[in-house]
Amino acid sequence: MIVQSHVYSEYSLLSSTNRIEALVEKASRLGYQALALCDHHVMYGAVPFYQACLKYGIKPILGLELTIQRDEDEPHTLALIRLYAKNEQGYAHLMQLATLIGHKEEKHPALSREEVIPYLNDLVVVLPDQDGPIHSWLQSGQDEKAREWLATWRGQTNVADWLLGISGNNEQVEQVSLFSKQNGLKVIASHPCYFLEERDAEAFGIARAIRDGVKAEDRALRREERSYFLQSPEQMLTCFKHEREALENTQLLASLCSVQLTLGQPQLPKYTPAEGESNELLRQLCVKGAHLRYREVNDQVRERLEKELHVITQMGFSDYFLIVWDFMRYARKQGMLTGPGRGSAAGSLVAYVLEITNVDPLKYNLLFERFLNHERVSMPDIDIDFPDHRRDEVIEYVQGKYGKEHVAQIITFGTLAARAVVRDVGKALGLMSFVIEQVAREIPSTPGMTLEKALAESKRLAALINESDEAKALWQIAKQLEGLPKHTSTHAAGVVISARPLPEIVALQAGQAGVSLTQATMNVIEELGLLKFDFLGLRNLTLLERMVSLIEEHNQVKLDLQNIPLNDEETFVLLGKGDTTGVFQLESPGMRRTLTHLKPTEFEDIVAVNALYRPGPMEFIQTYIDGKYKVHTITYAHPDLEPILKGTHGVIVYQEQIMQIASLLAGFSLAEADILRRAISKKKKEELARQREAFVKGAVDNGYEANVAIEVFSLIERFADYGFNRSHAVAYSMISYQLAYVKAHYPLAFYTALFSSVWHNHEKLAHHLRECRSAGYKVLPPSVSHSDLLFSIENKAIRFGLLPITHVGVQAVEAIISERKKKPFEDLFSFTVRFDQKIVNKKSIEQLIKAGAMDEFRQDRATLLKSLDEALRFAIEVKEFQEETGGLFTLDIQAPEYDQAEPLLIQEKLEYEKEALGFYLSGHPIETYKAKLADVTRVTIETAFTKTGIVRVAGLIVSVRKIKTKKGEPMAFAVLSDESQEGELILFPQAWQKVEITFKEGELVLIEGRMDQSKERKQIIVEKVVSVNSLSNEQGSVQDAKLFLRITPAREHPKLLQQVKQQLLDNKGQVPVVLYYEQTKQTKRLLANYNVSPSNTCLSILKELLGKENVVLRKEGTKDK
């Protein structure tokens, strides 16, 4: 029996392209009975490899390749060793070693002898011939050094199994064999396996080039490296035909190694109270908490508490609840706003009285059995929301309490996704960027997109690949590498807490903020039986926290969100108007329209609409509304269902209602009813049949007619897919309501906090600013004299912050705020003198000027920009003098005069604002064209959306989303904006085909179309599009303009010039095009059929192809564009 002992997997992160499932499947097909995995420094793949081997009937050998310091006198002299676990203790040692090297901070980490030796027991040590410690000395003729090294290492451990690896192409075979015999070592055949099939060699080389950030041609594969695929036993026999003993010793390795992993057995964490036992402490805390939560602890509270405590203690989860109670208590002590709850945990009274959740399960009729069910043993799962900027504080506390080796976050992997793999492969192949981007741009960036799917959806993509050998090679290799893990990342929420030190169960590595990462993904963590806690950072809690602070500061009101009235009239008026932009769960356009139809009048309406507004149950929203307003009579399959369904007007909205129906009619316990609910949702025929039979029998036994029972069961089946977790709906609706309440009563605090939460997202910020202004609230521009870091309330208005200005960092803003506290800023010159230009540099000051943050200096922005260089020179002169005199004297020099410039045109001012802020602040570009548009339309988007029939409106294209119809025809959805608001557009295939080339984001257009309200959302179905620039008007005319294109030697590439030609043909217009060939100094004016319409999109694409400085639109009396 031959064993492949030198195998790597995808988890060696771009050092191997072997996908574990495919690797083990092929090994099985080739007849291997055992297979060894030895990824470099990591154990990411150990459990998936172990499981795959069991699946395919192969013995798994679990190993690890380590870098060691070969020579203690020269710690930078490194070597590789490979270690294989003989048994479970050996496997634990591998995890300890992987943990040690995983926490090294060096670029090329290595372990010393002192670090490795303690863990060599129960391991087989293989000293490889490539980069191994022995072979390098043998190669240089230092046999004695090799012997000394071996004697030193062997002398400090009881390990008996040391093997010398040899490969089939090793020229030192005789020398190695002699050394092994002289030193009592066995040799083992070691053929590297980095990729699966012989044809995968090129893709492997590209993966390695991507890993190293080089071009593949600079790191070409050596001849022997092309043989590093999974060879068959026959190929191994040929390769090692002269080293049969080495081949036989691969079987020895398999016989020495036998690891049985313990999977699927819970390993619960422990909370160790100062005194007493966990179950008793939990009971005491619950009794105390119940008296705090309820004025009177009645029988209902006591009985529910007893029932829950019985299940929790019986299932062994007391420690789990105590751990959560403890870190939630810590969060509250630190003044954190914690969420009301999330998921089914909100149905637990124990969680409520422990203040883990803030939703009363008795008041809202929530079921504990939906969370924990003693008849369905599963781990508890309490997800906790914290303000997103304080989540790490709680994780740090937990780590401090339980110890670094007992707490870790969960690893995830960033992969070579569809668009990314094309870009990475193209770069490694050395292709020109325009070739790469041609292909990449045709791949949608939607989640779950694959190369295969993208190709099936795009004829243009298929054409690109077929017409170019470069694109074809790029695509083929990208397909081979797609989905491989590229780098590690951290799971958004998962934190593992373990009673045992984690490295005994799973390897760890360095993470963020001093918290380790598991070398296992969430699925593997669950297989190992470890319990994860979800610490979620919720932006909306940060929002609420900030709003409460602003309200206290500016309204002198200490708002207690837990005790706001849930029947507030102003809040429901706001909700009924759909005025819920910025309100958690309720801000999508569709949800806002639904709210205007529903006109909620009670908190339960919010809970229901949050549960129903999803694909599937959405169709029952109108039924709910009709029932609420008694448009029709509500009928029930049986009158006994009315108490359960009355609150939702006859509609089964929640999973808990299904459980209650099963309990009422069929006599199921709530635990049994939960099993029924899960069985129906999984749609397993045999289980469904058993449940149906039990339900009907139970109902008949309870006195109901069989036909009624069958009808109700069918009803349950229908709604089981749609039913929502009521506990979660109530908890999250609480956050929705709290935000709506603040928006209704404290709008300035609401908008100020909202703006600050999205300052980095220009599109969202612009949208919220527009709504705020339309609601009548003033937004003041940024100001170096008045703005804070982010947005602030100032004199019943909102002041724009400085941080949202591009190229103005936190350090610069903090310096500006600190300096102005000492003395107000007077002008540009005194401003520049007061700062270190490394902190507040030229670029940041330019952006401050362009954003309008220096308008208080009473100079036009053009003048400020023109005077900036002189101001910075003056500042340097002043500081040099102060340094020379030790700051004892003031420089008696007059500040320079401003270098006056022509005032900026409105359009220029707006473009500067967009450059600095990401959007237009003081106006909208379309406003400058009002005069030329007056003859064709005077309608704003806001007005147009109040009309019916044909409308004509002008605006800026904000976004374009392309899709395909069921027939495969391209069409698009778009958003158009003007000074009034944004509006949605639909371009069906016929209209889209006419404008696809020129209809781009950032273009100003006049559109004509028909208002559509058929889907209860207002959209304009576009029939005609005209560029605003094409309208004949002196301001926008391009008469007498010429487009000059300079062709540099580096750009004289036939395929690139073909792209330039295509752009000109795609943007036909009136402007002549002139080519200037830099190498020959020749100027050529193109024929009139190449005349172009120089839109912003057209110019930006040409600049990308030829270089920004090589594209100039010149017109007499104007600046170059």
Could you please describe the fold and organization of this structure?
The C terminus is likely disordered. The longest helix is centred in the last third of the chain and has 24 residues. The chain is built from 44 helices and 25 strands. Helix 5 runs antiparallel to helix 6, helix 19 packs across helix 20 and helix 25 crosses helix 32. The chain has 7 domains: 211 residues, Metal-dependent hydrolases (TIM Barrel, Alpha-Beta Barrel); 145 residues, no CATH class; 63 residues, Bacterial DNA polymerase III alpha subunit, thumb domain (Arc Repressor Mutant, subunit A), CATH 1.10.10.1600; 192 residues, no CATH class; 115 residues, no CATH class; 106 residues, Nucleic acid-binding proteins (OB fold (Dihydrolipoamide Acetyltransferase, E2P), Beta Barrel), CATH 2.40.50; 73 residues, no CATH class. The strands form 6 sheets. Strands 1-2-3-4-5-6 form a 6-stranded mixed beta sheet. The termini are far apart.
Task: Describe this structure in a few short sentences.
With 1121 residues, this protein is an alpha/beta fold. 43% of the residues lie in helices and 14% in strands. It folds into 7 domains: 10-193 and 230-256, Metal-dependent hydrolases (TIM Barrel, Alpha-Beta Barrel); 278-405 and 523-539, no CATH class; 417-479, Bacterial DNA polymerase III alpha subunit, thumb domain (Arc Repressor Mutant, subunit A, Orthogonal Bundle); 549-740, no CATH class; 803-917, no CATH class; 925-1030, Nucleic acid-binding proteins (OB fold (Dihydrolipoamide Acetyltransferase, E2P), Beta Barrel), CATH 2.40.50.140; 1042-1114, no CATH class.
